[in-house]
Amino acid sequence: ERGPNSIRHTPVPPVPSKPSPPMAGGSSSPSPASALIQVRCAGCRGVLAVAPGMTEFICPKCQMAQRLPPQLMPNPSSSTPSPPKSSAAPALPAPPQHRKRASQAAQTSQAHGVDPTKIQLPCVRCQAVLNVPHGLANFRCPQCGVDLAVDLSKLQNFLTAASNGAPPASVPVPPTFLPVLPPGMLQPPQLVAVTTTVPIGLPATEPPEEINEVAIDVERDEDEGGTVGETFTDYRPPKLSLGLPHPDPVVETSSLSAVQPPEPTYELNIMDELDQTKTLSCLQIETIVYACQRHLHHLPTGDRAGFFVGDGAGVGKGRTIAGLIWENWQQGRHKAVWVSVGSDLKYDARRDLDDVGAKCVQVHPLNKLPYSKLDSKAIGIKNGVIFVTYSSLIASSERGRSRLQQLVQWCGHEFDGLIVFDECHKAKNLIPDAGSQPTRTGKAVLEIQEKLPEARVVYCSATGASEPRNLGYMVRLGLWGDGTSFQDFPQFLGALEKGGVGALELVAMDMKARGMYVCRTLSYKGADFDTVEAPLEERMTNMYGKAAEFWADLRLELLSAGEISGEEKGVSNQIWRLYWSSHQRFFRHMCMSAKVPAVVKLAKEALAENKCVVIGLQSTGEARTEEAVTKYGVEMEDFVSGPRELLLKLVEENYPLPPKPDTFQQGEEKVTEIQRKRHSAQDVSFKGRVRKVAKMEDVSDDDSGDYSPSESSDHESSESDEEFHMCQICNSEEEKSLLLNCSGCSLRVHPSCLTPPWTGMLTDDWSCYSCKKIEGQEMEHDANVADFSKRYDSAVERKLKILDVIRSLDLPNNPLDDIIDQLGGPDKVAEITGRRGMLIRTSDGKGVIYQARNAKEVSMEMINMHEKQQFMDDKKLIAIISEAGSAGVSLHADRRAKNQRRRVHVTLELPWSADRAIQQFGRTHRSNQTSAPQYRLLFTNLGGEKRFASIVAKRLESLGALTQGDRRAGPSLSAFNYDSTYGKKALTMVYRGIMEQDSFPVVPPRCSDNQASIEEFITEAKVALVSVGIIRDATVCNGKVAGKLSGRIVDADMHDVARFLNRLLGLAPDIQNRLFDLFISILDVVLHNARREGQLDSGIVDIKGKNIELKEPPKTVHVDSLSGASTILFTFTIDRGVTWESAKAMLDGRENDGAGSSNDGFYESKREWMGRRHFTLALEGSTEGIYKIIRPAIGEALREMPLSELKGKYRKVSSIDKVSKGWQDEYDVSSKQCMHGSKCKVGSYCTVGRRLQEFNILGGLILPVWGTIEKALAKQVYQNHKRIRVVRLVTTNDNQRIVGLFIPNAAVESVLTGLFFISWNFCRVVQWG
């Protein structure tokens, strides 16, 4: 039991009518409820409808069993007997005004969740009623997260009343939702927010089960796991002795090293040749053997099994692939497909094939070939290696013929040669996150495997298995589908995500055990790592602040302009997407520029020390440069400012303008035409009209009088008053004087025929309704044209002013061009990037000129290879690499190269993706090097750069490759994974605090405890979040809260961590850092709470002990039919204790060395449990005031304890005799009993604080039996036993390392039963087919 549990139920208003409470002393029965009762679930907070009379139920959503709260419980009849006084306990809350009814309800059944062994106290903030263990003085409310302490005086009052029924001292009753009290008690004990520690007294009566506060600490430690041991071990092939040792130290994670691969049975054809040439190391030969051995098998689906090379960057995957191709060539398979990331790498492929002796194998780059059949007479490629990039794989011709079809046709459907997916992480996201689409590359990789089922597939990537989702295209591994525990990949993915970090470790271990996976990495021993802070200079700080202000103003300007121009919704959304993407690129560019002076300084220092420099970045700013050259020409006064060009483009192309007045010209011409026709219209005589009507009505075919305009005109020129005309509405004849005649269109009608009828005078200047409307429109149109013209001119003027402001801003130049210029220009710096051109300073130094990167003798395709060779030949001592240009490039101090100076690798722009980080670092740290590189990780004091840089440095120091194998190999990069469940929860708490919907769980940065400073911070934060569009519909309040800023944050933004981090960059440095620090502080609290509650995924847990031995021989409980690998159950006996003699020796040793502090020594708990106190040894750790805790039963605790907490819970003991006896007693008792004592709810299965334990680990192959294990663990009572936990231990007698799933003692029988069922079914299938 870790702490208080929330048991609050919330009735949902309005509550249906309930039985009336009986009158005092009455005995009437309640009437039944007339309708369903609505309550809020105590678990998931959903609204439930409970049938009348039902008091106990299970939530259908979260499956929590619960009862109605007391105020909704049916009133008991008077005949209900009262429970015995000794078993009476406080019940759930009821309002004070219903105390009489509640006191009766308290004597009947209580709501689910009330633990009679604890005290029920209300939280001061959220009023949730908590089950508080006796003796627990300080804790956190599990519902709202506030830190709480027990108010001693009211607690004593409560305990006295609970024990004897006497009324306590009268105290005022606050108007809150309070718990039901024992008879006669007026006020419950109160929980107070923690400001100072409140001592707590012992309960007046001993509860049925004492809650041991020390046991709670021990349990939390055990849930988190032991301390991290050595995480990487030196690697050598365990079952092969072929070839020479690898030229550089190679390591493997300790998790994988605990797994043995299957026996090698494949014999290499090229082995004799390799013995002579010595071109492949034992590691590379081992990979070829296991890959070829794996390719001999087929999956249950019928497809040939595949192999995964997960070796880290620089181990030598390229030469391993060449060896595989050469081995298959010798076996008669003369066709192979090599898929990689860049066309430049075909030269490396050629080199690797030559190195292994395969000079006769031709390499054909597919991007240089036409789309026709490869084996046609025109092309004539009958065999060899087709080298294709991932981008080419999804290319197609104008006629619709794709490269994929071309490859499949060349291979043929019976193709059984090699298909190598090199750097296969490029095919990730075949199964993307919700809301996004699969990548075309991922689908193409999957399609070619489907069309060539007999192909020998090899996946190669240092980072391919970094995320379970990225395994989706590796269908040939046989981890899901027919014959496995998972029907399809989504089911496999769901199991891994449910299992957490440790589950991915098991996948890697399983793959190695089945002989389809190798994963080694170069040791980083010898490499230096340093994080270098490049704080913003004063000019850059001012520049950044002004840029942030401008972006905020620009946002308001665009909002205003959009309203004026009346942009359509779709157009408006497009503008804002462009705005925020430009916003992000702009400020990332600013961060890079801030580090340029530090990069130049580090580079010059390295050159002075006779070293060479590699500078890594992610983006080059080429697009902005080319746009500037298009606008200004190839000659300019200075280097292009990427941020300025980005801003200019955004405003020039996307500033909302009203429609041009020219667009009204067409409408204006239409009105003019109407006027012209109106005034040129001719009157029509009666005769003419009759003829026309007759013709229209087809009265007579032999009518001799054809209508002619000239004839009618002549006739009407007489203008006789007696002439008759036709009404053009009713077609009846009428005298001309009695008809209305429109002066505009010459319409003649009866006044009564109009709608509405005309009642005015018959005048000569009358106009019909249509003409009047046109005249009105004409006048309105003229006014509109003038108004729009004015608005358009005003908007254009505003736009020009904004462009002028942008041109006047002090903004940095493109950092890539700036660095090259400051370090000596292109003659001194090798550029290995994806851009085509560059700006260089003119010879007179008065300007810059744009020129192509390639010289006359070097093609653009070969420029990066040429630049790389210049660097490796010692002709240029500085290289700048980008992600686009450097994939697969080797820039290490190669023994074969002329330039063997030590590399200083400086990261100008740290990649925000772990996959990309490992690829960049692997450029300078590779096999066969004379010296390991020095890494200099640059960061600014903005956002999260410093935190990220330090994590990467520590991760590299732990010899890991950031994403491989054991996630606990040093501080995990997952600590920087802010966009996690915990990060989203922390962000929601940040936003709720800023919007004053809740209080912060921590004091905001640079705020004191007083409310005024916090309110000031909240105001600043609101203004900042309004400026970057997080808070919307912002208004300034009036009335009592006049001046306060209000608004809303949409639900989608409440947990969008990526958006928060990106928008954060657009704030001034000061508020940016304060908001980021607040987010990190709250994230730490969320992680701490999750860890304390046993919910944090801690990956692999190390099991430590003084003595760890196998209790009995391991049991083989399952055997895999394809690989022969087995699943084994290990049972260990573990002694975790520290004897009195050992503890005394530890303290004496510290005192003799003079390394101890005055507070070192033995301590005893201030409280007694079950008649005895706990003893501990406290020794100050590496941090002053923080102490290591050694206990008799479990040894050294994982969590170190601050001195204040140590003195709050324990007191120092000077009597050696007292400590000796107490220590020994606890040591002896803990061999058979847990710390909870004989009344422990878990019983003999509980291991909390137990010195001697039986510990079960299911090792070996796990995935085939995953479902069985999940079912067995789901049946466990103890919550922590339900979790899938990966553990690791090393036996003390023979140093055997075992890694696998922890199986609680209570679940062993269930697991074995399930495994027997699997094995029996398998045997039956084999026997009967």
UniProtKB/TrEMBL annotation:
It comes from Aegilops tauschii subsp. strangulata. Residues 724-774 form the PHD-type domain. Keywords: Metal-binding, Transcription, Transcription regulation, Zinc, Zinc-finger. Transmembrane segments: none annotated. SMART domains: PHD (SM00249). Residues 11-22 have a biased composition (Pro residues). This is PHD-type domain-containing protein. It holds the Pfam family AAA_34. GO terms for molecular function: chromatin DNA binding; histone binding; zinc ion binding. It comes from the Eukaryota. GO terms for cellular component: nucleus. InterPro entries: P-loop_NTPase, SBNO_a/b_dom, SBNO_Helicase_C_dom, SNO, SNO_AAA, Zinc_finger_PHD-type_CS, Znf_FYVE_PHD, Znf_PHD. The keyword Zinc-finger applies. Residues 23-32, 74-91 have a biased composition (Low complexity). The keyword Transcription regulation applies. Signal peptide: none annotated. Belongs to the SBNO family. GO terms for biological process: regulation of DNA-templated transcription. Residues 1-32, 70-114, 692-721 are annotated as: Disordered.
